[in-house]
Amino acid sequence: MTDLERQAWALGEPEPNWNRRFLLGGGLALGGGLLLSGCGRHEQAAEPVLRVSVTGRGEGDQELLQRLAGITTPGFKVNFAHFESGHLVIEALNSRALDYGGMSEIPPVFAAASTTQSFRQIAVLHGDVNNQVVLVPKGSQIQTLADLKDKRIGYVRATTSQYFLIRMLRSVGLDWKDITPVAMGVADGAAAFSSGALDAWAIYGFPIQRALATQGARILKTALGFLSGNYIVSAHVDALADTKKSELIGRYLQITRQGYAWAAGHQDEWTAAIAQEIGVPLAYVRDQFARKSASYELRPVDAAAIASQQEVADVFAGAGLIPRAVDVRPLWDDRFNAILERKA
Questions:
Q1: CB atoms within 10 A of CB 325
Q2: Which candidate, 187, 149, 184, places its Cα nearest to that of 168?
Q3: Per-residue pLDDT averaged across 114-121, rounded?
Q4: Tens digits of per-residue pLDDT, 39-81?
Q5: Phi, psi angles (nearest 5°) of residue 254
Q6: Sign of the C-alpha dihedral computed for residues 274, 280, 285 and 291 taken in this order
Q7: Nearest 5°: CA angle at 181, between 175 and 184?
Q8: Rounded distance between C-alpha atoms, residue 267 and residue 263, angstroms
Q9: Could you tell me the strand order of the sheet in which 180-183 lies?
Q10: What DSSP string describes 153-219?
Q11: Are 87 and 301 in contact, with CB atoms under 8 Å apart?
């Protein structure tokens, strides 16, 4: 299993087995599709299914949010599959195990540099970037980004943490070769940081609050100004080509907007639910929410979103971290803009 496949949430829980999760989530969804197509008239008459990813935990967990908000999907069923990283969502899309998935701007860039892209990017989920930071340990002498030179810094390969770390270094005249980068999954990074094996850690999500509260860690810099806040909503090309499935995707986008609107109006209830679901103290979640740079909202495909992802692609290409320069424009599809531009 690769580092990316071993990304856990660093919350003290056992490391998940991705293959098992895939079989119990996306794999079953795919199996369900096979059953619908091959079993008989009764199964063929069953309500249609949309196979949707949930990436990570917390504010992006639509399964939890929709359940808490009492949002239903009349006329069709949603099969959720949980993944620890956007790269695994891309793999599932390319394997035809998902119809709809979310990830940051980075995994599609790596896919665009490969030979297989079985998805199109149909919407932007814009949200918080202050939940992505460079942390330094208690008592660290590091005070500025320039002080990261020659330091041992943990990050998660091919994710937003690698991207904003590259951009932070460049902002003070440093390059990737000026540090000792240590690629590791979130759980391993948390262990290394707490043991003193890292001088700094580029990381995202609730491990930040845990390190601040329990280890006396300090935020050196947030990703504000280095990340766009854009996360990508993608759909499989076959789902988009299927008129009925494409209609379901449009309806699900509307349902997703309803979920985020509910969360914005019920912050206390939402933070409490997140804390209980992921098993962290409520104070951690409240702290992260208090630091938010933006609330999550779905946005249509536009020139700014495309340009933002192209900048990401150019940074990775310039750093030699993808095999060739790529044009991200062919990945985008604006057919759902009319739905996304309507008032919620």
A1: 12
A2: 149
A3: 92
A4: 444 445 589 999 999 988 888 899 999 999 999 999 999 999 9
A5: -65, -40
A6: negative
A7: 145
A8: 6
A9: 180-183, 152-155, 200-204, 132-136, 218-222
A10: EEE-TTSHHHHHHHHHHHHTT--GGGSEEEE--HHHHHHHHHHT--SEEEEESTHHHHHHHHH--EE
A11: no
Task: Look at residue 87 in the predicted model and tell me its pLDDT.
Answer: 86
Using CA atoms, how far residue 143 sits from 53, 126, 199, 272, in Å, is: 39, 30, 12, 34
Question: How many CB atoms within 10 Å of residue 286?
Answer: 17
Residue 82's closest CA among 97, 61, 111? 61
Q: Which pLDDT belongs to residue 344?
A: 61
Q: Which amino acid is at 10?
A: A
The pTM for the full model equals: 0.82
Tokens representing 312 are 């990401």
pLDDT by residue (tens digit) across 201-226? 999 988 898 899 889 999 999 999 99
Q: Nearest to residue 245, comparing CAs of 56, 23, 22, 37?
A: 37
